[in-house]
Each structure stands twice: as C-alpha cells, then as structure tokens.
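fyi for ur records
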Amino acid sequence: MIDFKNYIIKHFARFKVVHTIPGRIRLKVSNASKIPKEAREYDRYVIQGIRILDGIEHVEFNYLTGSVLINYDTTKVYEDKVIKWINKVLEIVLQDIKLIQEYGETNASYVVGTLEQKLREIVNTI
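which gave:
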C-alpha cells in the first residue's frame, strides 16, 4: 500500500513556478522522476481536481522533466488564481489523507467523489 500522505508531500506539495506566459504555467515538481509507476495512475485524480477551476483547459504531467504544464483561458482565470487553486487542491487532499488511505485502493470512486464535492464547494472562494 502506498503511503499517500508521504507521497503527496514528497512529490506534489513542493512545486515551484519555473515559467509562465499568459495562458500557460510550467511547474517544477520535486522528485517527480522518482514517483513509482504504480502511483502515477493517481495523476488523473489530481488533474480532475485542478480542472474543477473554471478556465483550466489542460494539465499534463511529464515525469522525465519533472514538470507540470497547465494551460488556462486568460479570459476566465489568471495565473495567481491558478497557483492558489493548486495549493488549495493539495490542502484538501492532505486534510483528507485518512479517507484516501482507508478507501483509496478499495473504493477510489468514493474517495474521488468526496474530494471533488469538497473542491466544488470551495472553488468559488479562491
């Protein structure tokens, strides 16, 4: 079983913006190349959470370069709001780490549904 809290803190919670242009942000994720292949299947859930913010068009992880590319619609959202949202997504995931550890492998749809509901409830407060 993956230690989700350690995994998230170690690999996702430490990121920095390395390049931006209007409509695109590239983040550097620490130790991305060390993320085990079996853990990479959970990327889609992180992407789903990030895409809840209206205006996020595309999120792509690249493990070789250790980066995340985020494309967004500048008429709907701006860079600072995207970064704040990513931090909020990570915060919610870490707050619910026990739920993820308990049900993540046996009932992923329940976990994802619960986290998505919480994110949808707070998305407009960012």
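The two ends are 33 Å apart (CA to CA). thats all i got for now
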